[in-house]
Amino acid sequence: MIRWIFIFVLIGIFVIVAVWFAEHPGRVGIEIAGLQIQTEAGIFVVALVLFAIVSAILYRLWRFIRRAPGGLLDHRRSNRRQRGYQALTQGMVAVAAGDAGEARKFARQAESLLNDPPLTMLLSAQAAQLEGDEDAARRYFEEMLENPEMAFLGTRGLLMQAVRAEDNAEALRLAESAFRLRPNTPWVLRRMFDLQVGARKWADANQTVQRAVRIGVVDAETGRRQRAVIAVALSDEASAAGDASAALKQARVAQDLVPGLVPATVALIRCLAASDKMRRAVKAAEAAWSAGPHPDLAAAFDGLGDENEAPLDRVKRFQRLCSFRPEHSESHYALAEASLAAHLWGEARRHLEATGGDNPTARHCRLMAELEEKETGNLEVTRQWLDRAVAAPQGESWYCNECGSIAGHWTPGCNSCGAFDGLEWQLPPGVVALPPAAIVPALTASDTEK
Questions:
Q1: pLDDT given at position 98
Q2: How much is the pLDDT for 287?
């Protein structure tokens, strides 16, 4: 609309000027090198306008001729770049489809058309991997490291190669390099944590968990649980190295993070005992038993006794411990084992009968076999109990939720599949829980003297 108004205005101005010259005729004279030119003013103006128009046309034609080679070259480059990007896109689609031949073909096209290595190296590397040429893929990934914009992608490619090759040391090094390049990338933090745990670099893994929680990669509750398990591992390492102070510090950290974590409580009991803090160790064991009896707690409590402790004194110690949860099956088992060691056959049998039920566990059958062998010497009955133990249900145990294996004792990572914090104290799937044990009063000192 504005353009048409402008055109109409120009036409109006032209008409007005023409009318003015028609009403006011005049002559214009020009003398050049003795040559005189006389003409009317209107004709002179028209000639001047025509001269300007022709000059403008000739100038534009000259500019077009001058720029034509460059324009054609730019058009050719643009077309070439467009075809290159199309080949790059088709190559990525081929990679996603797992078509190694197509991916390699489009990778070559993209390389020849784009002449831009940073854009095509990733496609070429992925095509090489599809063809099974890991050496060629490695060369492409290593070339990416030289380009700051592609360094992260190159590091990721080399990291995945190291993981597939099960070269965990190299994978950890590359994961740490990727972390330095992009420290807030979720998959980098997860991969680095898994590799640090596998390498038992507990202090580094602890820092990784804390960062993951800060940026929201891991929720706070999961982060506390993971840090508690790491603290138990650090406590065990310090104990093995003879650093009782550091071991106790880490055990307390684990206990504070997750108070109900049995391995943390066990570590705390043992560290307190190693630091000659027996009363605190006993109180910690009793508090934990009151919250939830566990065979590992019984084993840790057993270690609090004196080397020269008499069997009956050991029974009395366990009587006090079990008095906090006398009805629990673990209390019966703990007292049965202590009574067996003290040759209190009747007490041992009473506690075992309180836990057996109609479907005794393998643990119960083994203890009954031991009781029959020591008390009666009846090898036939002993053998029958051992045979039942083979077919009996496992009962609660350290079961790995990742691979389904059963561990004899708790470890930070599953010894079968390496899953961190994968062991959980539970009935293995398919095992029916036993009926609750009958409530049996705790033994008194007078009972043990009979």
A1: 67
A2: 96
Predicted confidence at residue 103, as pLDDT, reads 61
225/74 Cα distance (integer angstroms)? 61
pLDDT < 50: residue spans in the chain: 432-450
Q: Are strands 397-400 and 27-32 parallel, antiparallel or unpaired?
A: unpaired
Could you give the CA distance from residue 370 to residue 366 in angstroms, rounded to a whole number?
Answer: 6
**Number of helices (H) and strands (E), helices first, in the chain?**
20, 5
Residue 449 corresponds to which tokens in the numbers above? Answer: 């003297």
Q: What is the DSSP string of 130-157?
A: HTT-HHHHHHHHHHHTTSTTTHHHHHHH
Q: How far is CA 169 from the centre of its chain?
A: 17
Model pLDDT, residue 445: 31
| Three-state SS at 91 | helix
Q: What is the pLDDT of residue 47?
A: 75
Enumerate the domain spans of the chain.
Answer: 219-293
The sheet with strand 406-407 has its strands ordered as 406-407, 397-400, 423-426
Cα–Cα distance for residue pair 84/79, rounded to 1 Å: 9
CATH of domain 219-293: 1.25.40
Structure tokens at 270: 């043992």
Going by the DSSP 8-state scheme, the letter that residue 420 receives in this structure is B
